[in-house]
Amino acid sequence: MSILFNEEHNTITINTKNTSYQMRVSSEGFLQHLYYGKRIGEENFRYLYHNYDRACAGNPDEVFPNRAISFDTMPQEFPGYGVGDYRIHAIAARNADGSYGADFRYAGHEVTKGKYKISNLPSSYDYSGDAETLTVTVNDKITGLTLELLYGVFEDEDVITRAVRVVNNGKGEIALDRAFSMSMDIPFGKWDLVHFHGKHALERQTEREPLTHLVKSVESRRGTSSHQENPFMIVCDRKADEDHGRCYGMMFVYSGSFKAEAEVDQINSTRVTMGIHDDQFEWHLMPGEVFETPEVIMAYSGEGLTELSHIYHKFIRRNICRGKYQFTRRPILLNSWEASYFDFTDETLLALADEAAKIGVEMLVLDDGWFGDRNSDNAGLGDWYVNENKIKCGLKSLVEQVNAKGLKFGIWMEPEMINEDSDLYRAHPDWAFAMPGRKPARSRNQLVLDLSRKEVVDYVYDSMAKILSENNIEYLKWDMNRSLSDVYSAALPAARQGETMHRFMLGLYDLMGRITENFPDVLVEGCSGGGARFDAGILCYSPQIWCSDDTDPIHRLNIQYGTSFGYPVSTVGSHVSASPNHQTGRSTPIHTRAVVAMSGTFGYELDPAKLSDEEKEEIRDQIRIFDKYYDLIQGGLYYRLSEIGEEPYEAWEFAAEDGSEALLNVVVTNIQPNQALINIRLKGLDPDAVYELTDESEKYFSRIPTMYTEEIHKHEKTLFRGDALMYAGYTFEMVFGDYPAMQLYFRRVK
Ligand code: DGJ
């Protein structure tokens, strides 16, 4: 039993393998949060808190005339609104009488086997069949607003998920101005906030700052989870590092606008919240109606950031991703985008397929430009039928010819969008978001389809289903290239426009659900102008997401580093592209590009015809290496071995969970003369075992030439003890040239 109720103390304790989470019902019915942290035995944490009269704090009616009990200072499980708690809030309700009050008391709880379900929204699922659900019900006796606080308990995975079912059990309409998914008070300690900000082509940059008495928020108002902030954050001890310290993770299973807040209050207690952004959000609940929030995945590690990442990596692979390609090997693809952009014909594509087949690639992906009047990014979105001026033989024949060369075929679509210059727009101009009397803002010269309308979703589904069912398409890149603006649905009344943003998300998830359910063999790769929708919501439909439009491997180190805090490499779409790089103009060796792309789903995005014979030969070897270590890379434990930007190199490792093997990767990002030697201490090995080294990069980087040194140092030693590699480390030879990369494999032999 992972959920325990202690009748004597009125505590509810959730235990996972390594964590405990405790709340308590006070004699007045207040639901108080007592503890989340390392697993403890039977304990009542009430002793941690003392009530004092704090001036200017409101006292609930039940405790009158006791001035020591106040919502303003009490650690609460899900605070109410407008009744004396002045800290950041998780719910805001406007009642039928115009009052802004929501005041909750415990009404009961229930433990059920299995994981709760949220209708119409993606959420985690019970992969191993041993999850439990705790539902704690609190209600407002005056308005009838009821909250079912849902806790999904994944004991072995060390994860607790949270969501809220908001029910109007009253007699009047209630408008929710905010309906967050979680709130948590951490009454003691000094904490840092780690968040992942960015921009197009440079997503998920790691930033860490102290939490102070200011409210800090990590948020997106863009209708997508966004390039600018990722819906994942970590609150950790000020001194926490990869291997030490308490760390809390909060990850939102949602792909639209979101807000996560953190505040240290006047008595140094920290509160964190997370949910759908309340900008342009107003949900009307009529009596009897229910609003369900998306889910937050919460995890705790007492052993630093690496362990926290491992919890998320496993959980996302097992309990978020699903479908045919959850664990099966995914094909190595060649994507046409950076190979030819909009400039292709069926003949050039078939030539590309020939080249791809020769180097060992397994699938050709036809990116943007194959449909409607799409010769640039100014027209055609919405017209999902083939452009026969470019693909004269027709799509079906093209796919068949590519298949005949031994390659699978994948295709690109951007289903949520519409160009004004399209047949679809000419037929249905009101299907695009636009406010009455206003010309909507264009972005990439495109508008957003109003997916809050069922007929629009149906139409888009039918167009996609036609393409997918008439052709042997085995992969779909689902792109989305702008943020939402001018959000207004011609189909909703004025008073309901505050629902449009979220209804768009519900429409999108309905569409993704229908596509993945009816085409279960199609591998879907999420994408949004690169990585603007890299989130656990999308991962419920597609096991991989194009991580960034920046394919420069040196920037990718940065992007993939930030991404790795929450997301496993099996989700990270990553390709080897041309050099000089199309985004930065930087030149890098093809070996380095491959070492970086291998820490992801791996593929190519270039024209192989432009490569030298040596480079093509090297690609065949890259594919051999990726295949050889596929399971270790995709399923092994991921260790960050350098702090990004702190060293002239970046290093990371994949280690088998049982310590039997490890793959160490290093890229020198800032080559220096008269180098300090690079020494890396590995992690996750068996200290008593002996490992044999295979240097997979031996042929591919230059050592310092003899004119600078008396001898070329080359390791002759191939056997190392695990403890030596972990505590003394491995020292690399001096390297030379632009951005050399090393890839060393260690296999336990004794
Ligand atoms: C943005 C994506 O991230 C790119 O990979 C490419 O598919 C373009 N869109 C095509 O328009």
List the topology elements.
Blueprint: E1 3-6, E2 11-15, E3 19-25, E4 31-38, E5 91-94, E6 105-113, E7 132-139, E8 145-154, E9 159-168, E10 174-186, E11 191-199, E12 202-210, E13 216-220, E14 232-237, E15 247-253, E16 258-264, E17 270-276, E18 283-285, E19 290-292, E20 295-301, H1 305-320, E21 333-335, H2 337-340, H3 346-359, E22 363-366, H4 395-404, E23 408-413, E24 417-418, H5 423-427, E25 447-448, H6 454-470, E26 475-478, H7 500-518, E27 523-526, H8 536-539, E28 544-546, H9 553-564, E29 572-573, E30 576-577, H10 590-597, E31 603-605, H11 613-628, H12 630-635, E32 637-640, E33 649-655, E34 661-668, E35 679-680, E36 690-695, E37 702-703, E38 719-721, H13 722-728, E39 730-731, E40 735-736, E41 741-748
Parallel strand pairs: 21-22, 21-31, 22-23, 23-26, 26-27, 27-28, 28-29, 30-31
Antiparallel strand pairs: 1-2, 2-3, 3-4, 5-10, 6-7, 7-8, 8-9, 9-19, 9-20, 10-17, 10-18, 11-12, 11-14, 13-16, 14-15, 15-20, 16-17, 24-25, 32-33, 33-34, 34-41, 35-39, 36-38, 36-41, 37-40
Helix pairs in contact: 6-7, 9-10, 10-11
